Fold this sequence. Notes:
globular, 3 helices, 4-stranded antiparallel β-sheet
Amino acid sequence: MARSSAGTTALAGIALAVVVALAGCVPGAPTPVPSGMAAGPSSSPTPTAPAEPVLVEGGTAAENSAYFDKVNSEYFTRIGGMGTSAQLIDNLIAAGFRKQDLEVTGDRTSIDLEADSLIFSVRLKGECLIGDYQRPTGYSSMVAPLLGTGGCLIGTTVPIG
């Protein structure tokens, strides 16, 4: 009987080891979901349209760059081309830029031909928003540092009245 008791004890130990090992394979109670979250696929937020650029009064050139581009792109689309220096300056003033901060090149060459491009700028907090309209490529812009002269453009500009 001693033999059979030792065999029974060995079998019981093996059975217990198998039960313990298999216990990890059996699903237990469901994992609780943290409060405030729903179980299942997560819902993504509804996309919203980006905010329309606006003039940032007293802002930097970088802060007003998107607004400058919007104003100029709409102007050149409406005009259907370059227009004149005076029309461009009037449009920038109507959009809220200060006249004393503006510079523009002439829309006529020195031999009275229509210029191929207009370059214009706005001084803002020691920086410049510089726009350029070239035929036939269109409008482009950049933010640049203020020149040592205190202006944004090099060369001859048109007096703004």
